[in-house]
Amino acid sequence: MALVVQKFGGTSVADSTRIKNAAKAVIKEYRNGNKVVVVVSAMGKTTDYLVKLAGEISPTPCTREMDMLLSSGEQVSISLLAMAIQEAGCPAVSMLASQIGIITESVHSRARIVDIKTDKIQKHLDANKIVIAAGFQGITPDGEITTLGRGGSDTSAVAIAAALKAQRCDIYTDVNAIYTADPRIVPKASRLDQVSYGEMLELARVGAKVLHPRSVETAKQFKVPLRLRSSFNIEDPGTLVVGDENMEIYRPVTGIAADLKQVRIAILKVPDKPGVAARIFGTLSENNISVDMIIQSMEEDEVNNIAFTVHENDLNNAISVLERVRQEIKAAEIVVDNNIAKVSLVGAGMVDRPGVAAGMFDALSEAGINIKMISTSEIKISCLVAKEKAEEALKSIHKKFDLDTKDQHPNEIIN
Ligand code: ASP
Ligand code: MG
């Protein structure tokens, strides 16, 4: 008998038919003799709808009230799923994060989990019940409701799996597997049977929207074997995300993705003195703005240009804090480029294989695409290109690295 955590995303519980369908996948696992804990997101686009509703009332709603509001979505889906399972003849009980004891930091709208109590869940499991836990939400030590940030139920599921030392965490979603690229953009994308945590983490960070990056970090830290699989085809084994040591092969390139939500900020004619970069990036970090690619280029007359990318949601805030810094350090001008996409290639096997970067640049050059910025890490290379070229860039890189599927294309992306 194993302990299995299953997670169902919003699309997998979007209406009563899908909830009954999810119940089938739960019951199948339970009837196989396993203990099952299920983590659920809000139904369909509920969270988006609640965000929109709040926006109609206030342009800047208080984050505590936003958490009160958004956490309500998961209360609806857990109770309905518990009913569906009971209706099919199995014992089930739904639980909010406050009832379980999913303790987070005292930060609203993007809290991190600090502890998960297992005693109450365990008591229900010992009584042979299926436990349905609300994803995305937590509670602070003084009883305030928090949320983990959009898409956070993946993280809830993995953290619960880690706390309970589950044998497996199955994330049910609306795709059958992880692919070498988003099949809606690159129709020849191939399925991957296995990827490493490191590769998945980079892919999630660079724009592959299949798993929430923090869930992968948590899985990596606690060595929780993750399986991404389809809630519409529960026989399909999906893709396994595991530690490097369990990987059989290293491909130079595992997958590619594009992030269309970055903007580039350039600060021109920054005096070439120690401390200016620290001042610029220190200010951004104090204001909680994450910076991605950074380049500094030499100009004449002891001035440099410094350019970097931030998420488009952080743009206004970044510009307002940087304008003060610009005046202080006596830089000439701040210039914004909105028309960019970050195209990235990820693969743990590129570490000992020279030529992967060159291959990516070749692919872009053959497609006549200009590169605006480059950054690399151990297992990732990213290039900034014009937004309208992103799709072509992905297709060209995909082909260059021979990732195009040899199979009849799996017409299996369900939505
Ligand atoms: N319902 C939340 C959201 O839409 C959490 C999740 O789906 O993972 O962001
Ligand atoms: Mg969701």
Layout of secondary structure:
Layout (H helix, E strand, L loop, with lengths): L2 E6 L7 H16 L3 E6 L5 H12 L5 H8 L1 H16 L4 E4 L1 H4 L1 E3 L8 E4 L2 H8 L3 E5 L2 E3 L5 E3 L5 H11 L4 E6 L4 E2 L11 E2 L1 E3 H9 L7 H10 L3 E5 L8 E4 L12 E5 L2 E10 L4 H11 L4 E8 L4 E9 L3 H15 L3 E5 L2 E7 L9 H11 L6 E5 L2 E7 L3 H11 L15
Parallel strand pairs: 1-2, 1-9, 2-6, 3-6, 9-13, 12-14
Antiparallel strand pairs: 4-5, 7-8, 10-11, 13-14, 15-20, 16-18, 16-19, 17-18, 20-22, 21-22
Helix pairs in contact: 1-4, 7-9, 8-9, 10-11, 12-13
Bound molecules: aspartic acid (ASP) and magnesium ion.
Structure report:
An 8-stranded mixed beta sheet has the order 3-6-2-1-9-13-14-12, with helices on both faces. Strands 15-20-22-21 form a 4-stranded antiparallel beta sheet. It has a domain at about 5-175: 3-Layer(aba) Sandwich (Carbamate kinase), CATH 3.40.1160.10. The chain contains 13 helices and 22 strands. By secondary structure, the chain is α/β, with parallel strands linked by helices. Helix 1 (about 15-30) crosses helix 4, helix 8 runs antiparallel to helix 9 (about 215-220) and helix 10 (about 275-285) packs antiparallel against helix 11. It is globular. The chain has helices at about 15-30, 45-55, 65-70, 70-85, 95-100, 120-125, 155-165, 195-205, 215-220, 275-285, 315-330, 355-365, 390-400; strands at about 5-10, 35-40, 90-95, 100-105, 115, 130-135, 135-140, 145, 170-175, 180, 190, 195, 225-230, 240, 255-260, 260-270, 290-300, 305-310, 335, 340-345, 375, 380-385. A hairpin with a 4-residue loop joins strand 17 (about 290-300) and strand 18 (about 305-310). Bound molecules: aspartic acid and magnesium ion (MG). Aspartic acid binds next to loops.
